[in-house]
Specification:
This protein has ten helices and four strands. The chain has 211 residues and is mainly α. The protein starts with 12 loop residues before the first strand and ends in a 16-residue tail after the last helix.
């Protein structure tokens, strides 16, 4: 079995000089609100647009824990994975949807739009999302990116996707196609609609990529 402590995805993060924070230990703290504040504070202390901050690490940690768990298939078109540790999974869901909101939204969108080579694994993260506010943010982002698809100029067409991905505007356009990004978010939104009732936020016909 892989030792997640030895992987780049979930390494210990330096929040303060000489201090290391283990994300799983944080999640097992009795007071999740306090633990969430520590993660958020770590984000601001260590912010660097070229590197991953504490919220990025949290998102990658929870998706890794799901990826090393068990298969969960509510529809063959949307296969995903869940954590083996159900107690930890419930604490992650509470942390992500309540205690890290709204700061976590931009990190979720960044992860979903950057994950271009293995985008099926976006569903590992999507399973953990329950909050209407977070789902609405994903849907609104889908609508924003969808509008960019037919912009003729490539630099203007990819600008919003690059902003969400936190790529500098001068980077290449190959990884920031609004069509590709919208398709990835559409897949996540379709899965969320299978997992829970989202009819008050959007319907299947709202997810069409063509008018």
């Amino acid at each position: 079995m892989m030792d997640y402590h030895n992987t780049d995805l979930v390494d210990l993060y330096d929040f303060n000089a000489g201090e290391l924070l283990d994300i799983e230990s944080l999640l097992k703290e009795e007071n999740l609100e306090s633990a969430g504040q520590k993660i958020i504070e770590g984000t601001f202390k260590a912010f660097d647009i070229q590197n991953k901050d504490s919220l990025d690490k949290f998102v990658e940690f929870v998706t890794f824990k799901a990826k090393t768990g068990y298969s969960y298939i509510i529809n063959l078109a949307y296969p995903t994975m869940r954590m083996n540790d159900t107690a930890l999974e419930q604490r992650v869901i509470e942390m992500l949807n309540i205690h890290l909101y709204p700061d976590i939204i931009f990190k979720i969108l960044k992860y979903l739009t950057r994950n271009i080579h293995n985008s099926d694994t976006n569903l590992h993260l999507a399973f953990l999302i329950q909050s209407d506010e977070i789902i609405k943010s994903i849907y609104d982002t889908f609508l924003l990116i969808k509008k960019d698809i037919f912009i003729p100029d490539a630099n203007k067409r990819t600008l919003n996707v690059k902003r969400i991905q936190q790529f500098p505007p001068a980077t290449g356009n190959a990884s920031s196609s609004p069509l590709d990004a919208a398709a990835r978010l559409k897949y996540v939104l379709e899965f969320l609609a299978l997992k829970q009732n989202v009819s008050h936020l959007y319907r299947q016909e709202n997810l069409l990529l063509s008018e």
